[in-house]
UniProtKB/TrEMBL annotation, chain A:
Keywords, alphabetical: Cell membrane, Membrane, Transmembrane, Transmembrane helix
Compartmental location: Cell membrane
Organism expressing this protein natively: Streptomyces pilosus
Domain of life, per lineage: Bacteria
Name under which the protein is recorded: Membrane protein
Transmembrane intervals: 36-56, 62-84, 105-128
Lineage, top ranks: Bacteria, Bacillati, Actinomycetota, Actinomycetes, Kitasatosporales
Record has Signal as a keyword: no
Length: 130, 111
């Protein structure tokens, strides 16, 4: 938790990140930036999925529809926050010459997306009469 | 590839800035799809005022995102400093995305 608070502080203090270690080849920094953007697109896709569930499944019970949509929107927001957090951690690791940070987040996100997908299949097949 | 030289000295940037520029462009396109869906939601019959305001805020955050991406793309086009710090842009883009999700939650709840 303290690590996370420190990480958030670094989001708004880029100069502090640049004080550590040596500047890596900027091509690696740009690759790091593209990875961040890919995660941001994933976040935007989850947010768009939330809107899509809300609009394209109008026959669902209100609770299911809004619940699934809000879950997807929350996943999108979380994914976006995690994207910048991971970028900062990778940037610091590169500057210090350490190994890149490993993360359980991709596995967690995959599991959540799979659960939501299965829930939607079940709800669409059996939840119409609601 | 050795990191001992001064930043940016004698390295061939190759297509890296170009690829990064296109990645920003793809990301703004993803945001555009999200805002199109938000506009579709807000134009539904019987949408209360709160939903319309939330949709307007979504559009505002999307414009903020476009502005940030535009500035970053112009920074990448400046060949002299492709390694300029990108973190403020990233943090700004994430703030816009999270705010978009929050406004979207209000919009979905109001619908």
């Amino acid at each position: 938790m303290i690590d996370f608070a420190r990480n958030v502080r670094l989001w708004f203090a880029p100069a502090e990140v640049r004080q550590e270690g040596t500047t890596p080849d900027y091509r690696f920094s740009l690759a790091n930036e593209r990875t961040f953007l890919a995660w941001l697109r994933t976040a935007l896709a989850l947010i768009g999925g939330g809107f899509a569930v809300d609009q394209f499944l109008p026959d669902l019970r209100w609770g299911w529809r809004v619940g699934l949509a809000l879950a997807l929107l929350a996943a999108g927001a979380l994914c976006a926050l995690r994207a910048v957090s991971h970028w900062v951690r990778c940037e610091r690791a590169m500057r210090r010459g350490e190994d890149l940070p490993v993360s359980r987040f991709p596995a967690l996100l995959s599991a959540v997306v799979a659960v939501v997908a299965v829930a939607m299949v079940v709800v669409v097949l059996f939840g119409w009469e609601g | 590839m050795s990191g001992a030289v001064a930043p940016g000295a004698g390295r061939d940037p190759g297509l890296q800035p170009e690829r990064t520029r296109l990645a920003w462009r793809r990301t703004t396109l993803s945001g555009t799809v999200v805002v199109a869906l938000a506009l579709r939601a807000a134009s539904a019959d019987g949408m209360p005022a709160a939903g319309v305001v939330a949709c307007a805020l979504c559009c505002a955050w999307w414009l903020g995102f476009l502005w940030i991406a535009h500035r970053r793309i112009r920074g990448l086009a400046a060949v002299s400093a492709p390694g300029a710090p990108a973190m403020p842009y990233a943090v700004g883009a994430v703030i816009c995305t999270v705010a978009l999700a929050l406004c979207g939650a209000v919009l979905v709840g109001a619908g």
